[in-house]
TrEMBL record:
Keywords: Signal
Organism: Chitinophaga dinghuensis
Keyword Repeat: no
Any one of the GO BP annotations: DNA damage response
Signal peptide range: 1-21
Superkingdom, taxonomy of origin: Bacteria
Protein name, UniProt field: Secreted protein
Length: 235
């Protein structure tokens, strides 16, 4: 009987201790805050699309191969690695679809190229070295940074530091002291830009020989943002 009573007493004490521990845990003082940061960077990976098209010069067709050679030479002369110029698409259309005669000169081909640049300072020279009538369109398709992973990491660190600073001054305001970190949750980390492709105005050479080029390109910066949720204990 004594053994049973001792066992029951021990079980009661264990349950009481567990209940007290659970109660202490639920009443632990803590503070939950979010922190965010934003880094603005200049892109160094710019993808520029150039579309070339065949056209009739009098009765002679200017071939796409000739236009492509002009573009390739212009890229190399500008000091850009030739592998930075790649073909995106090839298409064609019938110059005179109403004409039933099968004349090879009536089929006009077009070719889209993607040029990778670190900045746009040489694009005027490149486009100026290509037959203006053979340039169908040009535009910036996308841009990014070669150090994007580093910037994302930096943004996360700054967001966490901002959360700690916020929690610290809020706790100090009520005469308490901030304890250690209990939880960290990454809410959002991304890079965002104006995703609309920016058309680049290319003015063909006029009859008086005056050259054209890119007109007032408003190049936007990339913003890398990070946000974290944190929970700190209060001493």
């Amino acid at each position: 009987m004594k053994k049973v009573m001792l066992l029951a007493a021990g079980l009661f004490l264990a349950m009481t201790s567990f209940a007290q521990a659970a109660d202490n845990k639920t009443t632990e003082k803590k503070i939950e805050v979010t922190g965010s940061s934003e880094i603005e960077i200049t892109p160094d990976e710019i993808y520029f699309q150039i579309s070339l098209k065949e056209y009739m010069k009098g009765k002679t067709k200017v071939e796409i191969t000739a236009l492509e050679k002009q573009l390739q030479k212009a890229v190399i002369d500008a000091g850009i690695p030739k592998e930075n110029l790649t073909v995106e698409n090839v298409s064609g259309y019938n110059y005179d679809w109403m004409n039933k005669k099968k004349n090879p000169q009536e089929f006009m081909a077009s070719k889209q190229f993607r040029l990778k640049l670190s900045k746009l300072d040489k694009i005027n020279i490149i486009l100026g070295a290509v037959d203006a009538e053979g340039i169908e369109s040009t535009r910036i398709t996308s841009y990014s940074s070669s150090k994007m992973d580093e910037y994302r990491k930096e943004a996360k660190i700054k967001a966490l530091q901002a959360a700690k600073t916020k929690a610290d001054y809020m706790v100090n305001a009520i005469g308490e002291k901030l304890g250690g970190i209990l939880e960290i949750q990454e809410i959002n980390t991304d890079n965002y830009v104006d995703v609309r492709p920016m058309a680049v105005n290319y003015m063909a050479k006029s009859a008086d020989g005056m050259g054209g080029g890119i007109s007032d390109v408003d190049f936007k910066t990339i913003k890398v943002r990070a946000e974290v949720r944190t929970v700190f204990s209060i001493k």
